Structures are given as C-alpha cells and as structure tokens.
C-alpha cells in the first residue's frame, strides 16, 4: 500500500534524499565510516556543514551580513534564546496568531520575571481560536524596541503571513519552522529567522538560525550554549552539533536546489494547497476554519466534516487507506493536511478522491 504521510512534523522527507542517505549510510564518501561516526572536527564533516550553509545561503538568498547557525534544542529553545540575547533593557513585541507564537510570548513573559526586559503583546487572535492573522496599529510600536516577533506559518491553525507587517523599522524576528523554503521571503526584511528542521528541512534535532550580525549580542548571555555570539564565533561548533541531522539537511538543500529552488517549491505548494482549498470551498460537506483566503497557509490545511463523529470516522478510514497522520491538532479538531515541500502532488490528488468518496458515502 502507498502511504501518504500528512504529519505536521517530523514530516515526510524526499524519497530521493532518503535513498541517497541509505546508499552512503555505511561508507560516507570513501571514509569507511558512517556520517554518524565522523568527528565533528574532521575534514569530511567540515565540508558537510560548510556546504549545508552555502546551499541554504543560495536557496534563501541570505545576505553576507547574516550568520547562519545550526543549533540544537528545537525552535522552542529559541523562545528563550531570543529575549536572552536580544531584548535585555528593551521592549520586545509579540504578534501572536497561533499556539506556537503564544508559547514564544509566554516564555518571554516567564524570563522577564527575572531579567530586565519588557515583553509586550502586540496583537492576538486567541479569542477566535487563532482563525485569522490579527492586525495592529504600527504607530503603537516604540521604534527603540528590540524586535517584533512573528510566526510566519501557524502550523496548528493553518494561517500564514506572506506580506510582512510595518514595524516602524523595528527588526522582525520570525519563527519560520513550518514554511521555511516552502514560501518566498526576503531575508533582508528580517532581523532574525529561526526554524526547527523537522518540517521542511530534515530530521528533528537541528535548529536553523539566520541572524543579522549587528543584532548579535556583544555582552555575554547567561550561558555559553544559549549565546548567539559564542555559537557564531565558533561556527556552530562550540560543542558537538547534531552531525547526522546537518548532513540530512545538506542533502535536502541539494535536492530543493535541483528541483528549481524556493521559487519552484512555493509554486508547487500553492498548486497543491490550492487544489485542496478549492475542493473544500466548493463542498458543502467539508469546512476550512480560516475564512480569509489571504491568511491561509499553503503548508498546513485544517478541515472538518459536519460532525466530530464523522471526523473520527474520516481519520479511521483514511488511515486504513494509507493517508496517515491526518488527524487535526486537538486544539482545532478535525483533520489537518500538512503539505510540505516533500509531500507529493499525487498524494493530494489521492486525498481528494478519498474525500469525494467519503462525502458520497456519509454526506446524505
Ligand atoms: C513545530 C513548531 C515549533 C516547535 O518546534 P520544536 O523544534 O519542536 O521546538 C515551533 N514553532 C512552530 C511554528 C512550529 O511549527
């Protein structure tokens, strides 16, 4: 049976990449060792991490005055590292349009109880279960603030920001975990971008940080591991980095480049998600909770049937036919199709057929 993996993360990876990793698994580039067995200070690994960085710079058009870091601790550790390194003595704004953005804000509030900075909730759509991207009045922003934190793609709720808000020149810090390399952004429009790798890049365990050099702290942060300056000065090799994950990320970057880069990925993703949105919008049976088309994510598409009982049945029948991990997040309910870069178009077409059959069977 063909399996289509709709998981929101860790998520589907390109088959070609997995095969390449398999072929090199026992003997990487004639070393007689697996990548996992290489010293992180060896020449072969140095080549891997350097070309991973180079490829990411090419794919995202990262300007020279930005550092690229490969860290650990997931996107969630960035929720603390960001205020710790960037916000001390300042205000820091949080635009909260989803559960992950709320976590970032909550973490900042927690830190501000012991450290001198002021996290401010700039806008939130929590009152309506994060079903839209909230707007805010830019004139309320203090231009001296450290940053405005946003989440470019709300993985759980299925919304996204494609046109960046006016922040009165205050640097935007963006959690791009679920649409990095899947939608086009200009890196120069951000002060910092970060992402856990497990959605669009590679296996869990690698966290990408792209940070403008002038924002890197000059005074030491509380701990070396949480200090961007130390991580940057040591080129992500302050301690042992997640070597195998970085290698997998490099293979994914090569693959995305070979397919035509982020422009091509963004186009394919719009096409894939467009098929599903169109079908849902035309159907009286299925619903998408995000009503404003401009707010809709091309990466994560939540949808429901007319009842929680039918949702449950949908997930069961889908699973038995190879559509796995399609159950929605418990906070939203229903289903969620995560259509990341590596998710094939055929999988969307097969899902649409399944959805039609399910509606025919249960819709009357
Ligand atoms: C998955 C996700 C996270 C959490 O990432 P971890 O690497 O598990 O810490 C944070 N933000 C967004 C937008 C996500 O999708």
From TrEMBL:
Residues 3-351 form the Aminotransferase class V domain. Gene3D superfamilies: Aspartate Aminotransferase, domain 1, Type I PLP-dependent aspartate aminotransferase-like (Major domain). GO terms for molecular function: O-phospho-L-serine:2-oxoglutarate aminotransferase activity. Pathway: Amino-acid biosynthesis; L-serine biosynthesis; L-serine from 3-phospho-D-glycerate: step 2/3. Its EC number is 2.6.1.52. Keywords: Amino-acid biosynthesis, Aminotransferase, Cytoplasm, Pyridoxal phosphate, Serine biosynthesis, Transferase. This is Phosphoserine aminotransferase. It comes from Streptococcus rupicaprae. The gene is serC.
């Amino acid at each position: 049976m063909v399996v289509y993996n709709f998981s929101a993360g860790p998520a589907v990876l390109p088959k070609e990449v997995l095969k390449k990793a398999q072929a090199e698994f026992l003997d990487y580039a004639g070393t007689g060792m697996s990548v996992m067995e290489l010293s992180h200070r060896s020449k072969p690994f140095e080549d891997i991490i350097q070309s991973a960085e180079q490829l990411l710079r090419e794919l995202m058009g990262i300007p020279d005055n930005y550092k690229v870091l490969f860290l650990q601790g997931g996107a969630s550790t960035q929720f603390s590292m960001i205020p710790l390194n960037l916000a001390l003595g300042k205000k820091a704004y949080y635009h909260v349009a989803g559960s992950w953005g709320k976590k970032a804000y909550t973490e900042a509030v927690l830190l501000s109880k012991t450290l001198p900075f002021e996290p401010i909730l700039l806008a939130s759509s929590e009152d309506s279960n994060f079903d839209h991207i909230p707007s805010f009045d830019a004139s309320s922003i203090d231009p001296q603030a450290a940053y405005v934190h946003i989440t470019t793609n709300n993985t759980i709720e299925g919304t996204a920001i494609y046109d960046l808000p006016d922040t009165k020149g205050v640097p935007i810090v963006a959690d791009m975990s679920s649409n990095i390399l899947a939608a086009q952004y200009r890196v120069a429009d951000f002060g910092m971008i970060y992402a856990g790798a497990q959605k669009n890049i590679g296996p869990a365990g690698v966290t990408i940080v792209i940070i403008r050099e002038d924002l890197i702290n000059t005074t030491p942060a509380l701990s070396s591991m949480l200090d961007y300056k130390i991580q940057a000065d040591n080129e992500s090799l302050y301690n042992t980095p997640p070597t195998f994950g970085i290698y997998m990320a490099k293979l994914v970057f090569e693959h995305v480049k070979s397919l035509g880069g982020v422009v091509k990925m963004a186009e394919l993703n719009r096409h894939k998600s467009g098929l599903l949105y169109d079908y849902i919008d035309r159907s009286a049976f299925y619903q998408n909770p995000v009503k404003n088309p401009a707010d809709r994510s091309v990466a994560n598409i939540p949808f429901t049937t007319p009842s929680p009982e039918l949702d449950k049945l949908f997930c069961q029948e889908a699973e038995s036919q190879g559509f796995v991990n399609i159950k929605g997040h418990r906070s939203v309910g229903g289903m969620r199709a995560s259509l990341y870069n590596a998710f094939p178009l055929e999988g969307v077409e097969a899902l649409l057929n399944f959805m039609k059959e399910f509606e025919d069977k249960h819709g009357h």
